[in-house]
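Continuing the batch. This is chain 6 of the set; chains 1 through 5 are on the previous pages. Same settings as before, nothing changed between runs. Recording input and output for traceability.
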Amino acid sequence: MSSKDFDSLLQQFLTLVDLNKTSLYISLLAITFNPTAWNIVARNEYRNKTITRLFRGNARYGTYFLAVLIFSFGILRDNLYHKAILEQPQYPILPKQYATIVPAVLFFLGQLFVITSTWALGITGTFLGDYFGILMDHRVEGFPFNVLRDPMYVGSTMCFAATALWYERPAGLLITLYVYIVYVIALRFEGPFTDMIYSEREKARKAQ
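Output for chain 6:
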């Protein structure tokens, strides 16, 4: 690719994504912060029981406290994302006849995966209760876990994409790609550690 072609592509990119908007970087920071922070906090809880001690040894109250934090910061992240894409250039992404129905269906499916996975896991199962020692008796295998391995992360990513398509903001799709990458990295840490927790539980059961 010649330098002229590269400059042309760069100019096209800059017409679709405004890199000068501070809200864009704040949104990316919030997206990075959430899964990173909760993985660090949860691992610390598993090893040191910091939050549990704050609630005088009540692990369930500690889990509820963390659930409120995760939920609240999730709402903040979504609001920051919404603000960021509204400050970005608008450009038609889908053909006009699909511009409404596709993002609506995508958002509905995303919310369906998030809500049903939360229902299936319960509060403690959803919000890292296993790091507090509150373990489930059996692996959840019903919907949506019989369709997707990580329906909550997939559903959340779908909602990001749906919002970008609804408001016709190409920058939103770029942020959605970043969301996907952050979630994939988070799962590489979260999944094996959770498996280890349950593996230790099974070893303890066999020892008894």
